[in-house]
Write a structure and sequence with these properties.
With 1201 residues, this protein is an alpha+beta fold. The protein is built from 42 helices and 40 strands. One of its GO terms (molecular function) is RNA-directed DNA polymerase activity.
């Protein structure tokens, strides 16, 4: 008892002497806060001997010291059921700590943790020991294993901001972590000591808006400053907008004419006659005073809570540190500092010290902020970096970059003048010739001649001649196996762009699969850059020259004949990868230059902005010299020079380091709140899709889920709005939002609602970026299939920096798009052609998923951003064979369509979307379901592809016009199929012509009777025909299968029945006994021996009509084919058996399968190269094969119009 009492007394004494750790703060970085608190509490327990007390008392200490935030989390934990070993789990200290660990420390994403580690660099004013400690902390979730110390060592070498220290480290023979740390600490210590010797005072930091309220300082004597400063000092020039020595001969604008006011000695970018509303101009040659014309803005203030007290801070975007007065901080919170503050008026203030304080914003968010403590007569201040982190201000980095662009314009014009060839209008060329590789089994395809509207032809001829003169295309006169269709895109300014529709060629070309740079390798270096420039190649693809063989593959048909591309054309699926490979190879070895997709980035690194600018300019000059040497041409209009921030691979690169590009999450952060229960359900469905990346999701969304319960009335209050905003914030940042990895597959979800488009970019199911926009009033009237295709174009263009140059899986919930994308462009509705043409520069794999699986894109499309601008105007497509309709005819069809009830129902379904199943379609329009993917509505007229759908009231008139010249049935049908359509059009036109008295009167006198075809067989070798032919005094037996059109040929030494039966038995033993054998009435077949043969072998023998062999048309057709092949083999000294083999492997017309495939389920090997896969057996279904003597009725019945 005495021992226990003494221990208890000792513990109480220790508790009085040893202060407890700070309370647990559940802020945005709760995991790190819990790690720190747990470590401090464990030490406190050991120091005060609390660890030796009961488990229940340890829990009580934990919750008492932890405070209300930790107690709230404790009350929400699921402790599990009581057991014999653990009767009270809520008081089991080790069990409670484990549950807390599981709550605060979820399983980390290893790839993301390593990315965070590899992008950590030493900040400009950061001590090395702080940098080293943070690196070690960041390795905890990286799973480096035994390589941990090497990884830390490597990151120190890459991230340390002392170049001399890095150089000394690289000189070490075996640089261990200990040696590297020792070198860095020694350099830092030496650097600080030298600074003290040099300056005699500590370093200073700049504070802009701190106001001294005791006295006013005298004004600065600028005249004196001018006298003491050198005329040769580098200053900002108001005449050219760049920095240079103060002398006329140093200014590039001197003696130059302004493009705006036409006066001399200045550039347009700094012209004071500019109509810019809020221009920024330097007011004096010596002092740069940026004055916004709208006047001086009022100071921005924010009230923040510190130590339960509200303090009014001024928010200053120009301040480098945060400032607080001494009276607002307790003495024990102040730590010593050597920092000196330099205020906006040039005076310096020595602070009392520094303090790290907990700050709460007005919306309840908590932050840990570092302050510099100053005297009480100064104003508390929040600097830019902290204000941005708190959400008090938002910095538009693209606008910041544009401010520096004005000063860069003068430098840009100097660069253009020095490298006029690089930025010229001539066509450039990347080194080497491009060779396109076709797949071994690819079969060449060639389209026939083409026509264009008369109104288009003069401009088309001019465009083709221009391309030929520039050396981009060349006329072709020799035969070429590959010929693609031409597509003409008309731009808004009236110019034309010639493209090809290389669908067949794309399927035949092998991809190069060129890898993109690994992000982890380049971002740590780019993160240290302070200044950036971006450049773009002029006509990038056309700078890749094709070799002769590849050029012939790109041959295309025009009204002026065939042409081939001499340069890499747009539209080929392999073009982007070839271009990327060539560009990287051409720029290989240039330091500070990166090229990904079609962007070239140049960046400068340095301790100061001036050093970074100098480094950048050297790298830019090296790039331009390389371009000039190899003949590459750059686009002046797309050049961005000397920017302090720019976007690259989904990151916002700034002088302060890497940031997430705000555009990636703008669609989420600016998403309007839902207005009904369905909107809440869609939003919750989207965030549930991301639940595995969202900790504490159910707690955050609970107010929203209350609205979904049927018993709860709809009421959107502040509680729901706060939950909605917090959920969006969670979705728009890590760990939900991932970083792009070029090594992983890329997926795009896209969807279109009635009035908006939505898209999401994903890798491994985790989003990288979101996008949405409203449809324009014109786009709202698009057919649903056009809206869905527009969503694909929008997503590919929006995510261009990711999707260009690599395979991208595009997911849509509109299944007909898969069929549309496989068709030739001239078979696609006109508006869809322009959209498909824009997708041809991307390598996409279009896949269908039901709408319920596209939760992200569906939510984006229904809660879209309000801006409705089209980022890229769709071009008008004048496809060859397009026949324009006169205005009066179009108006007549439009009015009749509006009065046609059936077509009005059809229009409504086209605009809103077709049901998935045919039986769900209204009976009146069910006949349109098979070709629903071809139907669109434009100007209240329904089109099937390029053809007008004729209303019922005008069909009689159309039939009269079509038959006005009394052409035959086939000619009239071909004419109709060029431009018009309605269901059963073929049958109606046939009946109309059959009833024409004029045509009947002048019909041929000996018209053939209508044939009665044989019933079509259901399986191979069911119905077989035989006939005998004579060739060069030799007789041959031809046996043909009616199902597959496969025939056997046997030379007969004798025409006796026995000899013929012996040959047929061999065939029946090989292929099986047919059900029916059809022959003529020759003596070999019309005899008792052949009758007995049919009975013994169990088949029906049918003979054709005497003196009418056409009744055995299939056999007669086979005889004709065999005789032709025998004659050609004799004349060419060829092998007739080889001719038979090739014929049996040639696909039948309308069948897409050969006789050998239909009979045996496989191809047979020939002399033509064939892959093993093609020779494997396959189940080949016959689609009702057609005999040689098929009736006209049968032929017409197959036509669908």
């Amino acid at each position: 008892k005495s021992t226990r009492s003494s221990t208890s007394a000792a513990t109480e004494d220790d508790m009085e002497r040893i202060p407890p750790p700070p309370k647990f703060e559940n802020d945005s970085n709760a995991a790190e806060q819990w790690r720190t608190f747990k470590q401090a509490f464990t030490l406190y327990m050991k120091a005060t001997d609390v660890s030796g007390t009961s488990s229940e008392r340890q829990v009580a200490f934990l919750l008492t010291i932890g405070g209300q935030s930790l107690l709230d989390i404790y009350n929400a934990l699921n402790f599990g059921s009581a057991t014999q070993e653990r009767p009270h789990p809520e008081y089991d200290f080790e069990h409670v700590v484990r549950l807390m660990d599981a709550h605060f420390l979820p399983k980390q994403n290893e790839v993301y943790s390593r990315y965070i580690f590899r992008t950590r660099v030493q900040l400009p004013d950061e001590r090395f020991d702080t940098f080293l400690t943070d690196l070690k902390l960041k390795t905890r979730d990286c799973n480096f294993g035994p390589e941990k110390e090497k990884m830390i060592r490597d990151q120190i070498v890459c991230g340390v901001n002392d170049e001399k220290a890095r150089a000394d480290i690289l000189k070490l023979d075996e640089p261990s972590l200990g040696k590297v740390v020792k070198v860095c600490l020694a350099h830092e210590s030496t650097k600080l000591q030298l600074k003290v010797f040099k300056e005699g005072r500590p370093a200073t930091e700049e504070v802009h808006a701190v106001k001294d309220r005791r006295r006013r300082l005298p004004p600065v004597d600028r005249a004196k400053d001018k006298k003491t400063s050198s005329n040769q000092a580098v200053q900002h020039c108001k005449y050219c907008g760049s920095d240079h020595a103060r002398a006329r001969n140093a200014c590039p604008a001197w003696n130059k004419t302004c493009n705006k006011c036409k006066k001399q000695n200045h550039f347009a970018v700094v012209c004071k006659n500019s109509k810019t509303v809020a221009s920024l101009e330097p007011e004096d040659d010596t002092d740069e005073i940026l004055m916004v014309q709208s006047g001086k803005p009022s100071p921005l203030f924010a009230t923040l809570n510190l130590n339960q007290e509200g303090i009014r801070f001024q928010v200053d975007s120009g301040a480098a540190v945060n400032v607080i007065t001494k009276r607002n901080v307790s003495p024990d919170q102040i730590m010593p500092t050597s920092t000196t503050l330099r205020m906006w008026n040039g005076t310096k203030v020595v602070p009392y010290g520094k303090a790290r304080l907990n700050v709460t914003t007005a919306n309840g968010h908590k932050h840990i902020v570092d302050f510099v403590v100053v005297r009480d007569d100064l104003r508390p201040l929040i600097g830019r970096k902290t204000a941005e982190q708190m959400g008090l201000i938002t910095v538009n980095y693209s606008l910041v970059a544009s401010i520096s662009a004005a000063g860069a314009q003068g430098a840009l014009e100097q660069i253009m003048e020095r490298h006029s060839d690089v930025f010229g209008q001539s066509l450039g060329s990347l080194p080497g010739l491009v060779h396109l590789v076709t797949k071994p089994a690819a079969s060449p395809k060639a389209v026939t001649g083409c026509r264009v509207p008369v109104s288009v032809k003069p401009q088309l001829e001019k465009t083709i001649r221009n391309l030929e003169q520039r050396g981009i295309i060349k006329s072709v006169t020799e035969p070429t196996p590959w010929v693609s269709r031409m597509v003409v895109a008309t731009k808004k300014n009236g110019d034309m762009r010639i493209c090809i529709d290389p669908q067949a060629l794309n399927e035949a070309l092998e991809r190069e699969r060129h890898p993109l740079p690994i992000l982890d390798d380049i971002l740590p270096e780019v993160a240290k850059a302070k200044i950036f420039s971006k450049l773009d190649l002029r006509d990038g693809y056309w700078q890749c020259i094709l070799d002769e063989e590849s050029s012939l593959l790109t041959t295309f048909q025009t009204p002026m004949g065939r042409y081939r591309w001499l340069r890499l054309p747009f539209g080929l699926a392999v073009s982007s990868e070839i271009f990327q490979k060539r560009l990287q190879s051409a720029l290989d070895g240039l330091s500070g230059v990166l090229c990904v997709a079609d962007d070239i980035l140049v960046y400068g690194i340095g301790e100061t902005d001036a050093e970074a600018r100098s480094d950048h300019d050297k790298k830019l000059e090296n790039l331009l010299q390389r371009c000039q040497k190899i003949g590459v041409r750059l686009n002046r209009d797309k050049t961005e020079l000397h920017r302090t921030s720019t976007t690259f691979l989904g990151h916002l690169l700034t002088k302060d380091g890497l940031r997430v590009d705000p555009e990636k999450v703008r669609a989420i952060q600016e998403m309007p709140p839902p207005t009904d229960v369905q909107g809440v359900q869609r939003f919750c469905g989207m965030v549930n899709y991301l639940a595995r990346f969202l900790p504490k999701l159910s707690q955050v969304t609970e107010p929203l889920r209350k609205l979904v319960i049927n018993s709860e009335p709809w009421a959107w209050s502040d509680e729901q709005d706060n939950a909605f905003q917090e959920t969006k914030n969670l979705v728009a940042r890590a760990p939900v939002l991932a970083y792009y990895n070029p090594q992983k597959p890329l997926m795009v979800q896209c969807d279109a609602s009635e009035r908006g488009l939505g898209a999401a970019l994903l890798q491994d199911g985790q989003p990288l970026s979101f996008a949405s926009r409203a449809l324009t009033p014109t786009e709202v009237r698009y057919a649903q299939i056009e809206k869905e295709m527009l969503a694909i174009v929008f997503s590919l263009n929006k995510f261009h920096q990711y999707t260009f140059g690599r395979l991208t899986t595009v997911i849509t919930d509109h299944k007909p798009l898969q069929a549309i994308m496989k068709k030739q462009l001239d078979q696609v509705p006109r508006r869809l052609q322009g959209m498909i043409l824009q997708t041809q520069r991307y390598n996409i794999d279009l896949q269908y998923r039901p709408g319920k699986e596209l939760l992200l894109a569906d939510t984006m499309s229904r809660a879209f951003l309000p801006d409705d601008h089209c980022e890229q105007q769709l071009e008008d497509i004048n496809v060859v064979n397009h026949l324009p309709v006169r205005k009066d005819t179009a108006e007549k069809i439009r009015n009749a369509t509006l009065r046609d009830e059936t077509l009005q129902k059809l229009t409504a379904v086209i605009l809103t979307g077709w049901p998935q199943e045919r039986h769900n379609v209204a009976p009146e329009i069910r006949m349109y379901f098979p070709f629903r993917d071809e139907l669109v509505v434009e100007d209240d007229i329904v089109y099937k592809g390029q053809r007008l759908v004729i209303p019922k009231a005008l069909r009689g008139e159309m039939k009269e016009k079509l038959h006005s010249s009394h052409m035959g049935i086939e000619s009239t049908l071909r004419r109709a199929r060029d431009s018009i359509f309605w269901p059963s059009m073929n049958a109606e036109i046939k009946d109309h012509i059959s009833a024409c008295n004029v045509c009947q009167k002048h019909a041929p006198a000996q018209q053939r009777e209508t044939l009665k075809p044989h019933p079509r067989p259901d399986f191979p070798w069911e119905r077989v025909g035989c006939d005998i032919l004579e060739h060069k005094n030799k007789h041959f037996l031809v046996t043909v299968d009616y199902y597959s059109n496969f025939w056997e040929v046997d030379q007969l030494n004798s025409l006796t029945s026995a000899h013929v039966i012996r040959r047929l038995k061999a065939h029946f033993a090989r292929h099986g006994i047919p059900s029916v054998l059809i022959t003529d009435n020759g003596s070999q077949f019309a005899c008792e021996a052949f009758n007995k043969f049919s009975i013994d072998w169990n088949f029906e023998h049918v003979t054709s009509s005497p003196r009418y062999p056409r009744s055995n048309g299939m056999a007669e057709s086979a005889v004709k084919t065999v005789k032709m092949l025998l004659k050609k083999a004799d004349e060419s000294n060829g092998d007739p058996q080889m001719a038979f083999l090739d014929h049996r492997n040639t696909p039948l017309q309308h069948m897409h399968a050969s006789p050998a495939q239909l009979l045996m389920g496989r191809r047979t090997r020939t002399c033509v190269p064939t892959t093993t896969k093609q020779l494997l057996p396959k189940n080949c279904q016959c689609q009702k094969p057609v005999g040689a003597e098929e009736t006209k009725d049968g032929f017409l019945s197959r036509q669908t119009g």
